[in-house]
Amino acid sequence: MAQAQRLAEQVKSLNSKIRGLEAALAEEKAKSTEGENHTLTSAAPDDGGLKAVSEAIGSLSLGMDGQAKYHGESAGAEYLQDLLPRDESEPSKQMARVDLPHEILALMHAFPFGFKESPYSKSIFIRYLPTKQRAMELAVTYYDSVAWMYDCIPSEDFSNSILTPIYGADGYASTDAIHSHRLAVFFMILANGNLYDSHCDTLAAEQYYALARAALSVDSILVEVTCATVQALFLVFRFIYNSSQADKEERWMLTGLATRVAQVVRPIKFYSSAGTTNLRYLAWTA
C-alpha cells in the first residue's frame, strides 16, 4: 500500500510538471520577441521524479531464448542468477530429438490437460511397449535408484495394476485392459529407469518420457482424474528433476498441478483377493 501511495504521489508530481511545461510552451508560441529568455530554456527539467519511478519498477531478467522474469523491486543480483538457465545453449525441450508419429506428437503437445474428446486411442502406443522382461528390468532399476526417495507407487501395486494388465499371463503386450493414465505411469517408470540403467540410453529415456506425456493426454484430466493421474504427474516431475536442471519453472508448475489433482482424488477403496478391505492413500511431503 505504501509503495502504491508513493508511486501515486510521484505520478501526480510529474503530471503537474507536464502541465507547467505545456503552459510554458503555449506562452513561448505567443511571444513575438525572438531570443527572449523563457522557462523552457532557462532551466533543465528536474528528472528526479522519473528516476525514482524507474527505480521503483523493479528488476527484469531476460534469457537468450526470450525467457522473461519479473523479480520485484528488492530482488538481488545473486538471487537472479539461478532463475534462468546458466547454459543458454542447452535445448529448451528434451523431446526435440525423439522421432514419433504426428498422432503421438499431437497428444504430447496437449500435455498436461489433454483433449476433452481425443481423436486417438491407446492402441497407437502398442508398438512402443518393450518386452515384459525389459520392462521388469527397467522397473527394478527405477525402484533401486529413484523410488528410494519418493515411492509414489509401491512395486507390488505397479506389478498388479500396470504390468499384469499390459502383459497378461502370456507376456504379450496390449493396452486394452489399462487406463491411459496408468499407461503414462508405466512409460514414466521406464523413462526414469533408463536414466540409471547400466546401458543408459538417453534417447530411449526421452522417448518414453514423450510417450508418457502423450498417454496422459488421451483422457483429459479436466474430465477424469485418478490416483494414477497424480502418480504420472509426480513421475514426470521426477524425470525432469533427474535429467535436466534447466526446467525449474516447469517442475514447480507440475508440482502445483499434481497437488491440486491430489486434492480432488478421494481415497480409493478396493478389495484384495482375500476379501480384505484396504484404503489406498497417496501421501505427499513438502
Automatic annotation (TrEMBL):
CDD domains: fungal_TF_MHR. One of its GO terms (cellular component) is nucleus. Keywords: Nucleus. Residues 28-47 are annotated as: Disordered. It comes from the Eukaryota. It is found in: Nucleus. Residues 28-37 have a biased composition (Basic and acidic residues). The keyword Nucleus applies. InterPro entries: Sec_Metabolite_Reg (IPR050613). This is Transcription factor domain-containing protein. It comes from Sphagnurus paluster.
